[in-house]
Design brief:
This protein is an alpha+beta fold and about 400 residues long. About 40% of the residues lie in helices and about 20% in strands. It binds a DNA duplex (18 and 18 nucleotides) through helix 3, helix 9, helix 12, strand 9 and strand 11.
Length: about 400
DNA sequence: TCTGGGGTCCTAGGACCC
DNA sequence: TCTGGGGTCCTAGGACCC
């Protein structure tokens, strides 16, 4: 899994498609090329660079975006087209390097050390990658090249759109320290404000504070992370991504009054969508999460962990309804503006079969065992019999007397 | 600046176990 | 009998990312 990186060379590429959704729309409809394009009406999912010139940003409200750029063309999102384009781009990534770490639908890290002999310098590889994505998929992509992931990502951000920027090892600190702290990965509005209150505006400012100070300000993980980034320490290797840990869906409900039936219908639709996606991916999950958002933009989550993983709609729906019932007495139904369901604690269907629930001797603690058979062997040995089967141990049939499990 | 839909990771407290 | 330390799991919330 680990790739050894020569620490003296810039060999990590961060490749990031430019205004991805909007670029796909411009690729597929020549009439949109050169014009400001907004994908999504309620909220801007993506804005073409022509629209960004007017100050439009992603995640901006649609009304505000149209105020800033009245002549923009608004198109509805076509998620399947974006998924297809993403797959084609990742195919190019995979052909470029065996070490690809996808970050999202439109960006990835590539480790290209060791390819110099066959594919040229990292700069050559990056230039060719950009060319290939343009030729084969028809989309503009920006690549940052550096010695660390973090710097490569910052570099691509600076080089956008349709650019290539290489940060050589001897120019790292002069590139990094003048940047505003908000450029640091993991620094959002809240952390930025906290740093600003302490007089830290640039990465160089942050670098002057001790790790202890940053940790006291931001918590142990964030403080350490920030301290390291500010000192250009980012040893994280490029590695394949873990499989995703949750699958969810959510829906905005608007501000109109709603009946319990309205809410239940929305909940049912969401659970069906989520369970269908889980089954298609051959994945099962144990934790059902209910997300609620209210008209004052406060949020609440409720979750429940089942004894065994499932992708069954009826079970997930019953659990979600239970969570909603226990949450609703405390909230105003008409104030509910968004409802979401996710199933977390995911595993592959195949491995989940080894994770059936069993009960310890007193029957009070439903548990899961990652590996049932070693326990079974142990129990047989202690009870001196082979008559105890996996089924007995798992206690699936009611009324069967359970043996007491040894410690 | 009033807001989508999809995620990840961290924190902190409580329950429970050894 | 009382006490404690260490570890895992669950729940809820928060920050952040694209």
């Amino acid at each position: 899994m680990f790739v050894s990186v020569p620490s003296t060379q810039a060999t990590i590429l961060h490749a990031d498609l430019d205004a991805f959704f909007a670029s796909v729309e411009q690729r597929d409809d020549p009439a949109l090329r050169g014009r400001p394009v907004l994908v999504g009406g309620g909220v801007v999912l993506a804005a073409s660079y022509e629209a960004r010139a007017y100050g439009v940003r992603g995640a901006m409200g649609g009304a505000q975006a149209r105020r800033l750029c009245p002549h923009a063309v608004v198109v509805p999102p076509r998620m399947s087209a974006y998924a297809e384009a993403s797959k084609a781009v990742f195919d190019v990534f995979e052909r470029t390097s065996p070490h690809v770490e996808g970050l999202s639908i439109d960006e990835a890290f590539l480790e290209v050390s060791g390819l110099r002999g066959i594919a040229g310098s990292p700069t050559d590889i990056a230039a060719r990658l950009r060319h290939e994505v343009r030729e084969r998929v028809g989309l503009p992509i920006t690549v940052g090249v550096a010695r660390t992931k973090f710097l490569a990502k910052v570099a691509s951000g600076v080089a956008k759109p349709d650019g290539l920027l290489v940060v050589e090892p001897d120019g790292e600190l002069s590139f990094l320290h003048p940047l505003p702290v908000g450029k640091l990965w993991g620094v959002g509005p809240v952390t930025e404000a906290r740093l600003r209150d302490r007089g830290m505006h640039t990465v160089g400012d942050v670098a002057r504070y001790s790790e202890a100070t940053l940790t006291a300000l931001l918590g142990p993980a964030a403080g350490r992370h920030l301290h390291r980034l500010a000192h250009n320490q980012d040893p994280r290797p490029v590695r394949r991504r873990k499989r995703r840990g949750s699958i969810g869906a959510q829906r905005a409900l608007g501000r109109a009054p709603k009946t319990p039936d309205d809410i239940d219908a929305a909940l049912t639709g969401l659970v069906e969508r989520v369970c269908r996606r889980m089954r298609r991916a051959d994945r099962l999950g144990r934790t059902v999460v209910l997300r609620l958002r209210f008209d004052d933009y406060t949020r609440a989550t409720r979750s429940h962990t089942l004894a065994a993983p499932t992708a069954r709609t009826s079970l997930v729906l019953a659990t979600a309804r239970h969570l909603l019932r226990t949450a609703m007495p405390h909230v105003d139904r008409d104030g509910l503006t968004l409802i979401g369901v996710a199933v977390a604690n995911l595993r592959d269907e195949a491995s989940a079969q080894l994770e059936l629930p069993f009960w310890t001797g007193d029957g009070a603690h439903p548990r899961t065992a990652v590996d049932v058979d070693p326990v079974l062997d142990d129990v047989r040995e202690r009870f001196g019999t082979d008559a105890i089967t996996r089924g007995t141990l798992l206690g699936r049939s009611p009324g069967v007397a359970m043996p007491t499990l040894p410690d």
